[in-house]
Amino acid sequence: MPSNAKHPDCPLCHTAGSQPFARLPLLEREADYFRCPTCQLTFIAREALPSREEEQAHYALHQNSPDDAGYRAFLARLAEPLIAQLSASAEAGAAEIMGLDFGCGPGPTLSKMLTEAGFPTLDFDPLYANDPYLLTQQYDFVTCSEVVEHFHHPAESFGKLRSLLRPSGTLAIMTGWLTDDAGFARWHYRRDPTHVCFYKPATFGYLAQQWGWQLSLPAANIALLRAPA
């Protein structure tokens, strides 16, 4: 069944016929949102996606710094369960564990926290640290902090993330979970014009099942997906 404006295919799992979910104001336009019945992804219509210029203008408002204790505390929600998992691997005799922070932004901080904890982490960002060579390598872990909600082509982007991981590698994700459908219109996360995909825990469960990976949800908004050995 081909895609159409009323029932587009899911951009993550490609299920045909996603259902209309909401029509809401975003920036200076109305945006249609859809819900996939298979993977439970909620996504914005393609015609309402922000332009690269709109994205860059919004990103320029971010003031993140590794010297900001509050920002470090925020990132610790992802870093701490990942470090616990990596520490267990190190104790089991794994060689040096190397990672990549995918979508590090203009003030790389998570990579510094992980490196300080003994797990060297490189930085990649398509706007602020765009080194294509890093995407030709594989890593023991890849972090995505407040990144996956920006994906315009989530199937392709998650495919790239999978390709970056070695066997037994971990994909560590932090993103705001959509758990209150009734409050979607008022949700601050939805009102960010660069947020175009919204995930439920079930969405990560679907990915883990499809990939044959192990899923851990150690805290709200945190998902750790571990590849098989």
UniProtKB/TrEMBL annotation:
Pfam families: Methyltransf_23. InterPro entries: SAM-dependent_MTases_sf. The keyword Methyltransferase applies. Keywords: Methyltransferase, Transferase. GO terms for biological process: methylation. One of its GO terms (molecular function) is methyltransferase activity. This is Class I SAM-dependent methyltransferase. It comes from Alcanivorax quisquiliarum. The lineage of its organism: Bacteria, Pseudomonadati, Pseudomonadota, Gammaproteobacteria, Oceanospirillales.
